[in-house]
Design a protein that fits this description.
The complex is a heterodimer of chains A (229) and B (573). In chain A, 33% of the residues lie in helices and 26% in strands. Chain A contains 8 helices and 10 strands. The longest helix of chain A is centred in the last third of the chain and has 16 residues. The chains are: A alpha/beta (229), B mainly alpha (573).
Chain lengths: 229, 573
């Protein structure tokens, strides 16, 4: 795997997704430079999750292309670069938190991951339960486990879908701090969210309505509630 | 070091799966597993014993043997073609593999080659499918040996080989369709082409397709033809090529199947037929049409100042309101049917035709086929009872109606009964055609048509209204496990048996009795259907009364006394 030089973190050209007659995402041309933190906002059903899943390689575009670091989404290179945190945590029923972390790191060829893992687990107060099965956790604890897994592996792009659902205030605070640290490390971040206070603190805001982009620019130059109403 | 990375990731994947397998094995209850094996062996043995008795043990005459040798390969070939067609259809939708949801997220999205990630599960599926196919093939061949003669070890061996090749070939074809991203249309067309080729061989009694050639391999103990090797090689080729291409399977399809297949397995485990039907539809992307085939005329269109629903207009005569309420389920039913997708309509026609063919076989003397016909009608009935099932699925909506739940359900039976008639008409036509199309055959098929149709639906209605067997119901807690098991079994089997009763008039039509004999039995079936409708209508009050009577033995007597005294608070409380 070789890294394309100076490629944007994400790029879409004419990217579209439809399910039969239903158009989930209108043709989208979009580019995100490396190191940017972007908030994706829009009402329910506006196409945010569809866009993120196509970027992660989970959904196949009906038309157009999507690239991660200059390589097609879903390719080996893109999978090594991009970490996707879904809105609903999906975990193995029969692996403990620590085992999840171990296999995630090994599958991503992470090196010296133990300290990083311990730090993340500690951030979310999971240290005492790290040997338990997340299948027996509450929704919030499962979400915290999924966040740890998304951040413990090497990554250049972080794609997060509705991350604050189910998090308690300390968990939310910890996650926001981690997002800031991750951005400081040069990771490009895309967060789909309804939390407008978080969106207001990002570098760029993209608003979708009925599958089409209705705003793309700095969050300070627009009344954010009008974009999601 | 990309090469080293790939190796380390592969090792991580192997370790992950090994650790999970070890944990599953450690968690397994050995006694429970042994008990399951014992019950399976018992049930399987009983079924085999019944089948042996049903098929009879007499050797065929020389002329009949020659006919089997000439046509048998095509029949086996048709089975192979059907398995292949099912495999191709599954592959067109991203099957046959069902990857765990967590594997989709953590393994398929990791930088691990997908071929590496999916080949293991693909090979395990082929291994298991091959073993099942070999077992079924060997049993079928040993049963055939009783009628066809020869050496039973030879029959068992060729049957096992042919059975394994049929299943692994079909699974391989599914993996090829999935990996090559053939899509639903192309794989559906290929499936139809396979069926047509096998059908042509069957009609012309020639072995031109690889399916029939594999059939020749299956009948080697009867007649050795080297061409059978070609059929075997084709099936083997498919089984080998499938895992090679499986790495290109769509992740989108894998994720969709991952979430649905888990629920489907659970629903099947608790015998929740309704959930099985709904999830299977989602898995095959069988969705209602966004635009109906035709529109229904609005009920208020002809009335001046119309608008709104009939039964909800203030100031209208009570009689009109009552009749409008009665008509609402009828319209609701047809709104649903007019949105049935073409694939569901096609499936219904095929199920109807299959039921007709099986009923014909039962009439000709293979009594066991009556269960196949009943099962086909039951499955078709589950589709046709969809509007009623929707009502049951949304109890809060039902509670909002100004009518008893049972009245709405009974009202939804009638559009379903009409909609079921064309389905079973396909069966009647098939049966009449197979019987030669004479006047007697047509009359018998016509007489059996309506009772079979209504009983097929009635079985589905019973299943829909009663819901899944209450495995964890409070009343079960006091029963011994054997009694709970028997109760669950009866509840599970009862609906398809009601559907099967609809086909029984074919037995009354055997011999010289014909349509007249079937008509008499048909009346009995109609009485059963009427009882089912009444049961659906009064299911809730009956259960409520039974529950109350069981919960407080004195209440019944007090209630009866209260009623007798004219208080009017007896049975209703």
């Amino acid at each position: 795997m070789t890294a394309p030089d100076n490629a944007p973190a994400l790029r879409t050209e004419g990217l579209t997704k439809s399910y039969g007659e239903l158009v989930a995402l209108e043709p989208l041309d979009f580019e995100m430079p490396a190191g940017q933190c972007l908030a994706l906002v829009g009402h329910n059903g506006s196409g945010k999750s569809t866009l993120l899943k196509m970027v992660a390689g989970l959904l196949e575009p009906s038309g157009g292309t999507v690239e991660v670091g200059g390589e097609p989404a879903g390719s080996l290179w893109a999978r090594a670069q991009l970490s996707y945190l879904p809105d609903e945590p999906v975990l193995y029923d029969d692996l403990s938190v620590n085992e999840h972390i171990e296999y995630t790191c090994r599958l991503h060829s992470a090196e010296d991951w133990e300290d990083r893992a311990a730090y993340l687990v500690d951030c979310f107060g999971l240290s005492a339960r790290a040997d338990e099965l997340p299948a027996r956790f509450s929704r919030g604890l499962r979400q915290k486990t999924a966040i740890v897994l998304a951040l413990v592996r090497p990554l250049a792009v972080l794609v997060v879908d509705e991350p604050f659902i189910g998090l308690d205030p300390p968990g939310r605070e910890a996650f926001e701090t981690l997002l800031e640290e991750t951005a400081t490390d040069g990771v490009s971040i895309v967060v789909a969210t309804h939390q407008l206070d978080y969106a207001a603190r990002t570098d760029r805001c993209v608003a979708l309505r009925d599958g089409a982009v209705v705003y793309d620019g700095p969050p300070g130059e627009v009344a954010l509630p009008s974009l999601v109403g | 070091m990309p090469g080293v990375d790939a190796r380390l990731r592969r090792e991580a994947l192997v370790d992950l799966r090994r650790a999970r397998r070890r944990r599953r094995t450690a968690d397994m209850d050995v006694m429970e597993a042994l008990y399951r094996a014992y019950v399976s062996a018992l049930v399987g043995g009983a079924a085999l014993w019944w089948l042996v008795g049903e098929l009879g043990g007499g050797r065929l005459a020389a002329a009949e043997l020659a006919r089997v040798a000439a046509n048998g390969p095509q029949v086996v070939g048709a089975v192979f073609a059907l398995a292949l067609a099912i495999g191709l259809r599954s592959g067109g939708r991203g099957g046959p593999l069902v990857v765990e949801a967590a594997d989709v997220r953590h393994v398929l999205l990791a930088p691990v080659a997908r071929g590496t990630a999916l080949r293991g599960p693909a090979l395990r599926m082929l291994r298991f499918g091959g073993a099942c196919g070999a077992l079924v093939g060997a049993v079928a061949s040993v049963l055939a040996y009783r009628r066809l003669g020869g050496q039973w070890p030879a029959w068992a061996a060729t049957g096992a080989v042919a059975g394994a090749l049929v299943v692994t070939g079909a699974l391989g074809a599914a993996m090829i369709a999935s990996g090559a991203r053939l899509g639903r249309v192309v794989s559906g067309a290929l499936a139809l082409a396979c069926l047509a080729w096998a059908g042509t061989d069957l009609a012309t009694a020639r072995a031109t397709s690889p399916f029939s050639l594999l059939g020749e391999l299956a009948l080697w103990p009867l007649h050795w033809r080297p061409a059978g090797l070609v059929g075997g090689a084709v099936a083997l080729g498919l089984a080998v090529a499938g895992p090679a291409l499986v790495g290109r399977t769509s992740v989108e399809a894998s994720e969709r199947r991952a979430s649905l297949a888990g629920q489907l397995r659970f629903a099947a485990t608790v015998r929740d037929m309704r959930t099985v039907v709904v999830l299977r539809r989602q898995l095959s992307q069988d969705r209602p049409r966004s635009r109906p085939w035709a529109g229904l005329r609005a009920p208020m269109a002809r009335r001046p100042g119309g608008g709104g629903l009939q039964g909800h207009r203030p100031g209208r005569p009570a009689l009109v309101q009552a009749s409008s309420q009665a008509g609402a389920p009828w319209r609701r039913g047809w709104h649903g049917y007019l949105r049935f997708p073409a694939v569901r309509l096609g499936r219904l026609v095929l199920l109807g035709a299959g039921a007709g063919a099986a009923a014909f076989g039962a009439w000709r003397g293979t009594t066991a086929l009556v269960f196949v016909a009943g099962l086909a009608l039951y499955v078709a009935g589950l589709d046709v009872a969809e509007p009623m099932a929707q009502a049951v699925d949304h109890p809060t909506l039902m509670e909002g109606y100004p009518r008893p739940r049972g009245a709405v359900l009974a009202g939804l039976f009638w559009p379903a009964a009409v909609a079921m008639l064309p389905v079973t008409a396909a069966g009647a036509v098939t049966a009449a055609a197979l019987a030669g199309g004479g006047a007697g055959a047509v009359a018998t098929a016509a007489v059996v048509w309506v009772p079979a149709s209504l009983a097929g639906l009635a079985g589905a209605v019973v299943s829909t209204v009663q819901g899944p067997p209450p495995l964890l119901a409070e009343s079960n807690m006091l029963m011994p496990p054997e009694a709970v098991g028997a109760r669950v079994a009866v509840r599970t089997l009862w609906p398809p048996l009601v559907s099967t009763v609809g086909v029984l008039p074919v037995f009354a039509a055997r011999g010289d009795r014909g349509a007249a004999g079937a008509a008499g039995a048909g009346v009995g079936v109609l009485v059963l259907v009427a009882l089912v409708v009444v049961w659906a209508r009064y299911h809730d009050p009956i259960h409520e009364a039974l529950k109350q009577a069981l919960s407080s033995p004195g209440a019944g007597a007090r209630g009866a006394a209260g009623s007798a005294a004219g208080t009017g608070r007896g049975a209703g409380t």
